[in-house]
Structures are given as structure tokens and as C-alpha cells.
Write a structure and sequence with these properties.
The protein is of the alpha+beta class. It is built from nine helices and six strands; from the N terminus they run H-H-E-E-E-E-E-H-E-H-H-H-H-H-H. It has two domains: 87 residues, no CATH class; 99 residues, no CATH class.
Length: 207
């Protein structure tokens, strides 16, 4: 066993009933509590890796201890993952389940940001509720949100937002949007959306 693995074994064993790594990992599970830090600023409390954006809370029911870890450690050490129905997620679906948890955490962070904005601007108090209901913004709504968030110095990452483009009126908004506005919200477009917009616009909106 490498020194790296010995450190991890010692760390986990100190918080578990079992003293051997393989047995100790069987005591731990992830039950759905994940936090989006908004940037790769966190550390994994198990392997001590830096540059972690999402903190997954793993718990040991036998010792009542918990750790904030990255998703890679959950998979690497084959920790149990429990879904919201109390059932264990099979190994073949563990990665996709954890990715879904990350997406959910990003949405929750966005809703908190929009709620903060709504507290500062009364006319935007329902913005978070609208985003949750529709799972995104129209292009014009994204322009408004970006303007107000920047104006009021609310911390956010535009790339974490979702712009909706399935409706024809939303598509028309982007087709006819002033170039400076489109450039402002460009980071919020997904890769496929960028390709679509490049086909609509020949004015270098993505530059």
C-alpha cells in the first residue's frame, strides 16, 4: 500500500469502527446532501485533494461522523450511494446519479442567487420561483438577470444558468437581439445552442 493510501486508511479508520480500509468504507454512505461551492475552491476531507467544487456529505451511521468529499472519492472507494427513496444506487448507475446531484446543486445555488437579487429589487422577487418552475430563463430574461446581478454586485457564474430555446418566440429573441446583449449572455448558452446561434447570426456574436 502506498503512503497516500495509508494516509487515507488512517483518516477513515479514525472515524470508523473498522480499522482496515476495505471494511471501513462499508460503513460510509452518501444520502444526497451535496453543496455547490460555486467554484473549485474546496478540499476533499478524505483524500485532501484541492480544487473541489462540489462537497458531497458522506456519513457513518455507526460512529455519527461525517466528511465533505469529492464525487471521485465516492466512486474510487466504492462508498454506498443511497437515492431519495432509500435504495442503494447500483455501481453501474453511480456516476450518472452523482452527476445528477451536481446539476441539482447548481440549480439550488442559482435559486439562492436569484432570491438574493429579488430581495434587492422588489420587481424581481419572483425571479427565482420562475426559474425553478421553468428550469431556465428566456434569452430576454437572462439579459435582465445578468444586468441586475452585475449592477448590484451579486456574485454569480453565467455559465451555470440555463437559457431556454425550444419555443419559437425565444428563438426569435436571440435572432433579433442586439449584438452587445447577446455577447453578454453568450456564456450561458450550451454547446449545442452556440452552434444553433452561429447558424442564425453572421455578425460575430460569439467573438
Amino acid at each position: 500500500m502506498s503512503n497516500y493510501m495509508r494516509r487515507i486508511e488512517a483518516r477513515l479508520a479514525s472515524l470508523s469502527q473498522a480499522s482496515e480500509l476495505t471494511m471501513a468504507t462499508k460503513e460510509w454512505e452518501f444520502c444526497g446532501h451535496v453543496r455547490d461551492l460555486g467554484g473549485a475552491d474546496g478540499n476533499c476531507e478524505l483524500c485532501e485533494k484541492s480544487g473541489v467544487r462540489y462537497h458531497f456529505k458522506i456519513s457513518n451511521a455507526q460512529t455519527q461522523h461525517s466528511l465533505q468529499v469529492g464525487s471521485k472519492c465516492i466512486e474510487r472507494f466504492e462508498l454506498r450511494v443511497i437515492d431519495r427513496n432509500g435504495k442503494e444506487v447500483p455501481a453501474s448507475k453511480k456516476t450518472s446519479h452523482l452527476e445528477g446531484q451536481k446539476r441539482g446543486a447548481r440549480v439550488e445555488r442559482i435559486l439562492l442567487i436569484l432570491a438574493e437579487l429579488g430581495m434587492k429589487v422588489q420587481s424581481l422577487k419572483n425571479l427565482a420561483q420562475h426559474y425553478r418552475k421553468h428550469s431556465g430563463f428566456s434569452p430576454n430574461q437572462m439579459v435582465l438577470a445578468e444586468w441586475q446581478l452585475t449592477k448590484l454586485d451579486v456574485s454569480y457564474a453565467l455559465k451555470d444558468f440555463t437559457i431556454l430555446l425550444k419555443r419559437k418566440d425565444y428563438q426569435k429573441q436571440l435572432k433579433n437581439m442586439e449584438l452587445w446583449k447577446l455577447r453578454k449572455i453568450w456564456p450561458a448558452l450550451s454547446g449545442p445552442q452556440e452552434t444553433i446561434v452561429r447558424g442564425w447570426r453572421k455578425d460575430g456574436a460569439w467573438i
